[in-house]
Amino acid sequence: MRLNLPLILTMLRVAVIPVVLGLFYVPWAHARQIATVLYAAAAVTDWLDGYLARRWGQTTRFGAFLDPVADKLLVAVCLVMLLRDAYVQNTPADLLGVLVAIIIGREITISALREWMAELGQRTSVAVSWVGKWKTGFQMTAIGMMIWKIPTFGLPWYSMGYWLLFVAAALTIWSMVNYLRAAWPMMRESGE
C-alpha cells in the first residue's frame, strides 16, 4: 500500500475518533470545544480526501474501503457519545435515542445493501445521491453543534444541533428509501 495525502487524511479521520471521545469526557475547561474543532476538521476531510484523490488520480482500493468506514465510525461514535451524555445529564433523551437509531440503522442497512449490490455487479445502482450528501452535511453539522454544547454569541448550539438532527434523520430515511427503491428490481430477481 502506497501512502498519499488523501489516504493519510482518511487515516487521520479514524485516528481522531478516540481523541474526540476522550476530550468529550475529560473534565477540563473547554475540552468539548477542542473536541468539536477536531471533529469539524475530521468532517471536512470527509469531503477533502475524496476530492483530492479524484483530482490527483490517487484513488486506491484501501482508500475506497476506508473512507466510508471512517465516516460511519466518526458519526456512530459521536452519536452514541451524545446519547450517553444526555442520559447521564438526566435530559430527555428518548427522541434522541430514536434519531440515533434511525441514523445508525440506515448506515448499517445501506452498507449491507452496497456490499450485496457489489456482489451482483450492480454497485453503481446505489451510488451516493444528492440527498445522501445533504444528509451527511446536516448530520455532521448537527453533531458538531451538539458536541460544542456551550451557548456562545447568544446561540444555543446544542438545541440548534438537536433540531438539525431531526432534519438529518428525515433526510436519512429519504435517502434510504431511494437506495432501497433503486435496488428493489435486483432484490425481486434474486428471490425468483
TrEMBL record:
The pathway to which it is assigned is: Phospholipid metabolism; phosphatidylglycerol biosynthesis; phosphatidylglycerol from CDP-diacylglycerol: step 1/2
The reply on keyword Transmembrane helix is yes
Q: Which GO terms describe its biological process?
A: glycerophospholipid biosynthetic process
Please provide an example of a Pfam family that matches this protein in its UniProt record.
CDP-OH_P_transf
Q: Which PROSITE patterns match?
A: CDP_ALCOHOL_P_TRANSF
Signal peptide residues are: none
Q: GO CC annotation: what is one?
A: plasma membrane
The protein's superkingdom reads Bacteria
Reactions mediated catalytically: a CDP-1,2-diacyl-sn-glycerol + sn-glycerol 3-phosphate = a 1,2-diacyl-sn-glycero-3-phospho-(1'-sn-glycero-3'-phosphate) + CMP + H(+)
Where is the chain membrane-spanning? Answer: 7-28, 95-113, 125-148, 160-180
Q: How does it sit in the membrane?
A: Multi-pass membrane protein
- What keyword terms does UniProt attach to this protein? Lipid biosynthesis, Lipid metabolism, Membrane, Phospholipid biosynthesis, Phospholipid metabolism, Transferase, Transmembrane, Transmembrane helix
Q: Protein name, please?
A: CDP-diacylglycerol--glycerol-3-phosphate 3-phosphatidyltransferase
Q: Which organism is it from?
A: Solimonas terrae
Name of the gene encoding the protein in the UniProt record: pgsA
